[in-house]
């Protein structure tokens, strides 16, 4: 599907979809339990991949009409899957499920689409091997397809922290049900650290104790996953909140701004987008108790933003920088190249088609908003949900229509994204 955006002003109320990061962890945590109810879950292409994995491990995921997930778990002992685990385009699924597969008393095979088969898994495979499992890449390059044979008992390991925080999350989730527990020694500084904070929060909500140590993280073994009252509620997603927030900042109508609901505080590092938009000059008010954010359009100025802990915000920040006066310098961004696509290069190239000047370096992206004039064009979504949504925002203020190709990939994290834009007053057309 392609979507053509007509320059538009936006106004009204948008509701944040549930957090993808929390939903992944909650579905798998409920799988590790003997069962749990997960409320307000995001049901997207990515989270469905995690649900399918839970079922292949012997659990069952039943989605009710109201979106609630009733999950029968495998109680800490995943069965050997009867089929290959297809993680589709979900890197989170592959990493979290790879560690779960190492608990099974037998062999599991994991794969995904072309993009996922190019993403690095080597450090996690080495960590699982250090713990006594057999974990290999079929091509010997540290990328999927993966073959994992367990079970592992737990123990100590060292792993780099600057490739993906998801490795740490996967090991902590699995470590709680091992015999010995798992102690993780970080070899390098941890990137995207707030995502591990999310993991610790979800583990605590499921009754599992894990902790930070002087050199990394640790979780004791032989624990049970039991959420209080048998259920867990997923909070709103700040990665997704970044899009209506940015839309209001760059294209809010004169009569009304944009109100975003479902923005309760949590451990999500991407809540930093509220401060970023405010620093750039937008009029922002966040009522943390009510979980609402109000944003109004204002002249924006370029700033410097470190995305070491918030890699998913880079596409949104780049679009804001394209509209702002002056330069927006996005730093500590090398790990953003190892997402669904190389998001640093993708944003530089696609914004360039819209007339935006950028300077790309290995670890940074500078957007020269003061030297740019946004003009409508046809751009590629690069099969990446965050690139698609960020480019759609640019189309709100470009001179002329902007067509985003491959726009259906928003289903990965925000299936209702374009419907939300229409409700805010955006003129758009979908074509096959």
UniProtKB/TrEMBL annotation:
Keywords: Amino-acid biosynthesis, Aromatic amino acid biosynthesis, Cytoplasm, Transferase. GO terms for biological process: amino acid biosynthetic process; aromatic amino acid family biosynthetic process; chorismate biosynthetic process. GO terms for molecular function: 3-phosphoshikimate 1-carboxyvinyltransferase activity. Gene3D superfamilies: Enolpyruvate transferase domain (3.65.10.10). InterPro entries: Enolpyruvate_Tfrase_dom, Enolpyruvate_Tfrase_sf, EPSP_synthase, EPSP_synthase_CS, RNA3'P_cycl/enolpyr_Trfase_a/b. The active site is at 312 (proton acceptor). It is an enzyme of class 2 (transferase). It is found in: Cytoplasm. It holds the Pfam family EPSP_synthase. 3-phosphoshikimate binds at residues 20-21, 25, 164-166, 192, 312, 339. GO terms for cellular component: cytoplasm. Pathway: Metabolic intermediate biosynthesis; chorismate biosynthesis; chorismate from D-erythrose 4-phosphate and phosphoenolpyruvate: step 6/7. Residues 7-420 form the Enolpyruvate transferase domain. It catalyses: 3-phosphoshikimate + phosphoenolpyruvate = 5-O-(1-carboxyvinyl)-3-phosphoshikimate + phosphate. Monomer. HAMAP family: EPSP_synth. Belongs to the EPSP synthase family. PANTHER family: AROM/DEHYDROQUINATE SYNTHASE, PENTAFUNCTIONAL AROM POLYPEPTIDE. This is 3-phosphoshikimate 1-carboxyvinyltransferase. It comes from Natrinema zhouii.
């Amino acid at each position: 599907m392609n979507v053509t955006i007509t320059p538009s002003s936006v106004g009204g109320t948008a509701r944040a979809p549930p957090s993808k990061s929390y939903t992944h962890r909650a579905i798998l945590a409920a799988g590790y339990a003997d069962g749990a109810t997960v409320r307000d879950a995001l049901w997207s292409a990515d989270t469905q991949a995690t649900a399918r994995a839970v079922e292949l491990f012997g659990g069952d995921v039943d989605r009710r009409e109201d979106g609630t997930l009733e999950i029968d778990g495998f109680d800490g002992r995943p069965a050997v899957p009867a089929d290959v685990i297809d993680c589709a385009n979900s890197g989170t699924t592959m990493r979290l499920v790879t560690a779960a597969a190492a608990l099974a008393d037998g062999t599991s095979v994991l794969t995904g689409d072309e993009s996922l088969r190019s993403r690095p898994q080597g450090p996690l495979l080495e960590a699982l091997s250090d713990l006594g499992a057999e974990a290999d890449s079929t091509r010997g390059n540290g990328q999927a397809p993966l073959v994992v044979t367990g079970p592992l008992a737990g123990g100590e390991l060292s792993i780099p922290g600057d490739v993906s925080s998801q490795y740490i999350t996967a090991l902590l989730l699995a470590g709680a049900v091992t015999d010995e527990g798992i102690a993780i020694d970080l070899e390098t500084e941890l990137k995207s650290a707030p995502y591990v904070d999310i993991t610790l929060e979800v583990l605590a909500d499921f009754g599992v104790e894990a902790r930070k140590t002087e050199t990394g993280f640790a979780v004791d073994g032989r624990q049970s996953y039991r959420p209080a009252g048998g259920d867990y509620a997923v909070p709103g997603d700040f990665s997704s909140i970044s899009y209506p927030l940015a839309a209001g900042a760059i294209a809010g109508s004169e009569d009304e701004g944009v109100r975003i609901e479902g923005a309760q505080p949590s451990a999500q590092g991407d809540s930093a987008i509220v401060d970023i938009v405010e620093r750039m000059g937008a009029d922002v008010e966040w009522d943390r108790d009510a979980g609402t954010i109000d944003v109004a359009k204002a002249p924006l100025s370029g700033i410097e933003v470190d995305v070491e802990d918030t890699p998913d915000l880079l596409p949104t920040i780049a679009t804001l920088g394209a509209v702002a006066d002056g330069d927006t310098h996005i730093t500590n961004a090398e790990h953003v190249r190892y997402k669904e696509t190389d998001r640093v290069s993708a944003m530089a190239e696609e914004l360039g088609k819209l007339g935006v000047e950028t300077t790309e370096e290995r670890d940074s992206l500078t957007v020269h908003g003061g030297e740019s004039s946004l003009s409508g064009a046809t751009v590629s979504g690069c099969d990446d949900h965050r690139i698609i949504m960020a480019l759609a925002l640019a189309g709100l203020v470009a001179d002329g229509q902007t067509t985003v190709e491959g726009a259906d990939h928003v289903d990965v994290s925000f299936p209702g994204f374009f419907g939300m834009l229409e409700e805010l007053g955006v003129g758009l057309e979908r074509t096959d």
